[in-house]
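Researcher: Hi, I'm a grad student and pretty new to this. My advisor asked me to get structures for two proteins we've been looking at. I'm not sure of the right format, so I'll just paste the first sequence and hope you can take it from there.
Model: That works fine. Here's the first sequence with its structure tokens right after it:
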Amino acid sequence: MRRVVLWVQRHVVNPLARPVAGRIGSYALLETFGRKTGRPVQNPIGDGLRGDTFWIVAERGRKAGYVRNMAANPRVRVKTHGRWRTGTAHLLDDDDPVKRQKTEKLNRLNAWVVRKVGTDLLSIRIDLDSE
């Protein structure tokens, strides 16, 4: 089942969501830099913007490619509400991701999907640079 979910996300959901993520209020676009290539990699994610902090709950934890990229280089960009912002990602191994989804009032549909298909949830806090 996990392989099917990953295939659908990679080949159906992400290509369809990538062009509109960051323009629609409930979704954003995360840009990390490839840990081997250094090239920018963009992934659609739920919009977790809260002031100058951006929250993500990664459904595959440290196994997700974008999380491995952040571990190698924590400098990221996030496109939300039509504009790009830069910041520094922090992987929070000791945080409770389900509680984080609730306390930060993250997008309910996205949070539900992450909990249902997620195998190893991980909270990530991105401290956005001052504008």
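Researcher: Oh nice, that was easy. Here's the second one.
Model: And its structure:
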Amino acid sequence: MKTGASWHAGQLKSFASESVVYRRGSHTVTVDATFGETAHEIINPSGIQVEVHSRDFLIDVADLILNGVTVKPERGDEIEFTDTDGVKYTHGLMQLGNEPSWRYSDPHRFKYRIHTDRVKLPT
């Protein structure tokens, strides 16, 4: 299983990813990320259950290096990417309800699945 998970992670990176900039304060790193989406069910302040969707980024654990140190995602971090029309988007890590803002995407911890929401208007 571990060999298959490693192969799958490599295939996603090679054939289904785009370059994004991962930012924590003044430190950045350009990494390859596969885009995804996750539906979260939360209870809003009025007590109504709503479904919220996050833009997810799947990033290799080994690639998330800031200032020379391998790091785990943290709240307050941002991910920037430019779409095919040249529009730049900035997303911040998003925690909804009891769900963390990220999780490992596989049992062998090769990739992070980072949940985000747009924090700046496109430029």
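Researcher: Is there anything I should tell my advisor about the second?
Model: You could mention this: The CA atoms of residues 41 and 86 lie 32 Å apart.
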